[in-house]
Specification:
Radius of gyration: 20 Å
Largest sheet: 6 strands, mixed
Mean pLDDT: 89
Oligomer: single chain
CATH class of the largest domain: Mainly Beta
CATH topology of the largest domain: OB fold (Dihydrolipoamide Acetyltransferase, E2P)
Distance between the termini: 22 Å
Shape: globular
Number of helices: 7
Number of strands: 21
Helix content: 25-40%
Bound molecules: zinc ion
CATH architecture of the largest domain: Beta Barrel
Strand content: 25-35%
Length: 312
């Protein structure tokens, strides 16, 4: 039976407010909580610390046993995808990043995101490639380019966030059948686009071998305070995130994600110990000294639409 998405607000029985935030809910509300959209019974699941890493997993809401969302509910897999696609495709003057297929599924056109990201780099990262005088320089052209980039990043991080909020394996299969990712005229696997903390090792190896040709989506939980590195060319601000540790035949490898920012204002919106879904390019240098366990990789962020909160 489909379980739907993890939720972070609910309606309390016999009260007016349609969506009470999880911060105001507790286990004591169980038995009186409903889906904000379709009224199915939901329950509060307490937060906890995961494994030896002590990574915090925040509280969330899930469907009660034997309950089901209505098919068009925004907390169901299909309903959540349809809502995101509608919002994404409703923006005028911008080619739709989601293409609807005859069978009712959608194709996510990664090429559009890659092209938009290239324009963004050329126009808005100081010092990267100062093309502001060439063509897309001023006025409405520049604004249209900005809108397009925001829209594509919002769609990419939005669809990856939906994936991150699904845990049930049947739901994951349904999700993958409804959204296919197209890049350079072929479909790429969801696993090549989306990485949670159990697959940092795979992501690191692909990045170190320069095998990543498009942005990827990564689930990270922030561990450090904001760091500043004056010597960086573009990405001065950064946070270290919770790691993935692999122990193999007495050999330890620790995969360490760092999210790095070109804009201090965006960096300051990040909260320590919170979990985020980030879409961006990943960089890694292969570790020359194999006796050193740390394998670092960086995710670059220059647009606030690359980040989604409320992923746990
Ligand atoms: Zn529902």
């Amino acid at each position: 039976m489909a379980k739907g998405l993890k939720m972070f607000s609910a309606k309390i029985k016999e009260t007016e407010e349609p969506a009470v935030n999880i911060s105001k809910l507790s286990k004591s509300h169980n038995g009186r909580l409903h889906c904000s959209h379709c009224n199915a019974d939901v329950e509060y699941v307490s937060g906890y610390l995961r494994d030896a890493s002590k990574k915090p997993v925040a509280a969330y809401l899930r469907l009660c046993k034997n309950e089901e969302h209505k098919s068009d509910c925004k907390n169901s897999v299909k309903g959540s995808i349809e809502q995101l696609v509608d919002e994404s495709n409703a923006i005028e003057d911008i080619p739709s990043i989601f293409e609807i297929q005859d069978d009712g599924s959608y194709v996510f056109r990664m090429n559009l995101l890659v092209e938009a990201q290239k324009i963004l780099k050329d126009t808005s990262i100081p010092g990267e490639n100062d093309n502001r005088e060439k063509g897309i320089s001023t006025g409405s052209d520049y604004a249209r380019t900005g809108n397009r980039i925001n829209s594509y990043f919002r769609s990419a991080s939005g669809i990856a966030k939906l994936r991150a909020l699904i845990e049930d394996s049947a739901d994951i299969e349904l999700f993958k059948s409804l959204i296919k990712i197209q890049y350079k005229n072929k479909y790429i696997k969801w696993n090549d686009f989306y990485y949670d903390e159990s697959r940092y090792d795979i992501l690191y190896r692909r990045a170190a071998k320069a095998k990543l040709h498009h942005p990827v989506a990564i689930n990270v939980t922030v561990k450090s305070d904001l760091g500043y590195y004056a010597g960086a060319k573009v990405f001065h601000w950064s946070y270290r995130c919770f790691t993935m540790r692999v122990d193999d035949d007495d050999k330890r490898q620790v995969f360490v994600p760092k999210i790095q920012f070109s804009d201090e204002k965006i960096a300051n919106q990040i909260t320590k110990l919170s979990t985020y879904l980030v879409v961006g390019d990943v960089w890694a240098n292969s570790q020359a000294d194999s006796s050193v366990p740390y394998r670092n990789f960086n995710i670059s962020i220059f647009n606030r639409c690359q980040i989604k909160h409320e992923v746990h």
